[in-house]
TrEMBL record:
Keyword terms, alphabetized: Lipoprotein, Membrane, Palmitate, Transmembrane, Transmembrane beta strand
Gene3D superfamilies for this protein: Outer membrane efflux proteins (OEP)
The organism's taxonomic lineage, starting at the top: Bacteria, Pseudomonadati, Pseudomonadota, Gammaproteobacteria, Lysobacterales
Region (Disordered): 102-135
Topology in the lipid bilayer: Lipid-anchor
One Pfam family from the record: OEP
Entry's localization field: Cell outer membrane
GO MF annotation terms: efflux transmembrane transporter activity
Main location: membrane
Name of the protein in question: Efflux transporter outer membrane subunit
Domain of life: Bacteria
GO cellular component: cell outer membrane
The species this protein was found in: Pseudolysobacter antarcticus
Family: Belongs to the outer membrane factor (OMF) (TC 1.B.17) family.
Compositionally skewed regions (Low complexity) per UniProt: 111-130
Amino acid sequence: MTLILGLTTLAAGCAVGPDYVRPKIDAPVAFKEAQDWKQAQPKDDQPHGAWWEIYADAKLNTLMSQVAISNQNVLVAEANYRKSRALVDASEASYFPTVGLSASSTRSHQGSGTTTDNTGTGTGTNTGSNARGITRNNSLSATASWEPDIWGKVRRTVESNATGAEASAADLANAQLSAQAELAQDYFQLRAQDTQKKLLDDTVAAYEKSFQLTKNRYAAGVVAKADVVQADTQLKTTQAQAIDLEVQRAQYEHAIAVLIGKAPAEFSLPVAPLNTPVPVLPVAVPSELLERRPDIAAAERLVASANAQIGVATAAFFPSLTLNASGGYQSSSFSKWLTAPNQFWSLGPQIAATLFDGGARRAQVRQAEAGYDASVATYRQTVLSAFQAIEDDLVQLRVLQAETEVQKSAVAAAEEALALTLNQYKAGTVSYLNVITAQATAFGNRRSLAQLDSRRLVASVLLVRDMGGGWDAQRMDDADKHPAP
C-alpha cells in the first residue's frame, strides 16, 4: 500500500499528451489598403466597450442597450456559455473521491420446506431468527472510491473543457458584436431611407411647381400640351418612388425589432433624417486582431481544447489505479446494530489495464490528432478571413470617401445646370425636355450623395466590427473568472 501511494504521489505531476503551443500565424506588418490611414496608438480613442457611442446617436444607444438582454441569439450563446462552465465544474469533480452512504433494514422469510445440511447439498433444517423462519437484517455502510489522476487524464479533460468554456465566452462576445453591428447597419440604412424620403418629398414639391408653371404657360399658349404631359409624368413617377421607399423602411424597422427581442408589431421608430457624421477610426495593426476579435479567440481556444483531447486519448494506454474503502455495521438485531462486534470494513487498491482492444485506443488517438489538425486549419482560416474583411472595409471606406468628394461637386454642377435650364425655359429658348433632363440629373446626383453617406456609415460599422468592436482577449479571461449567473 505504501508503495502504491508513493507511486501515485510521484506520478501526480505527469500528464501524457502534448503540451499546448499556440499555432504560429504569419501576420503582415500592416494592411495593404491602410496606406492613407492613421495607425492606431495606445493613446488613440479607439472603440472600447460601447463602441457604437462613437456615432453620438442617442436613439442608437438606447436600442443597443437592449441587444444583450433581449436578443434571442445572444441569449442562446449566453446559455451555451453557462453550459460549458457547468461542464468544467463536472470534470473538476473527478479530482475528488466519490463517497456514498447507504442504510437498510430488511425482513426475509424462508419456507419451512427449505433445508440445509453441513454437506452443502441444500437440504436440512432452517436456522432462522425465529420459529416462523423470518430473518431480520439491518445494515449501515459507507463507501469511498478514488482514482488518482496519475497519467493526467482528468487534468487534460479539465483543460479541454476549460478552454472550450473560454471559446464559448468568446462566442458569446461574438454573438453580441454581430447583433450590435447588424443593428447599427439596419439603423443607419433605415435613417438613409428617411433621408431619401425627405429628398423625394422635396423633389415632388419642386416638380409640382414645375408642373403648375407648365400648365400656366400652356394656358397662355406659350408651350404645347406635350410639355404638360411630360411634367405630369415626371411628377407621378417621383411620387411613386417616394411611396416605394416605405417597403424598405418597414423591413429595416422589422429587422431592428427582432434584433432587440421584440415582435415587429410592438416596435416603431419615428422618421428622422440621417445626419450622423462618419467617425474617424484609427486602424489596428494586423497582429492585434489576434487579441481583438472574439471569433479568432474562440477558434484559438478550440485548438487548445483539441490539443488536450490528444492527452485524454493517450491516457487510455496506461493502467488505472482505484482506491476503494467501505465500512459500516450489520446486524440482525436492531438494539445491537451499531455495536463494535457488528462492525465491518474493507480497504484496498485496484489496478486495471486493457491488454488488447483491437486498435481502438490507437484509433482514438489518431482521431484526436486529426481533430487538432482540423482546428488549427480552422483557426488559421479564421485569421485569414479577418485580414480579408479588414482589407475590404478599408478599401471600401477609402473609395467611398473619394467618391463622395466627387459626388458633391457633381451635385453642385447639376444644381447650377438646373437653374440655368429653368431660366432658359422661362425665356422660351429651350424645350421642357431640357428641364426634365436637368431636373432628373440633379435629383439623381442628390440621391447618390445621400446613398453614399449611408454606405460610408455602414462601411464604418463593418470596420469596427471586423476590428473586434470594443472586445479584447482580456475580457474573455475576465468572463471565465467571473462566469455569468
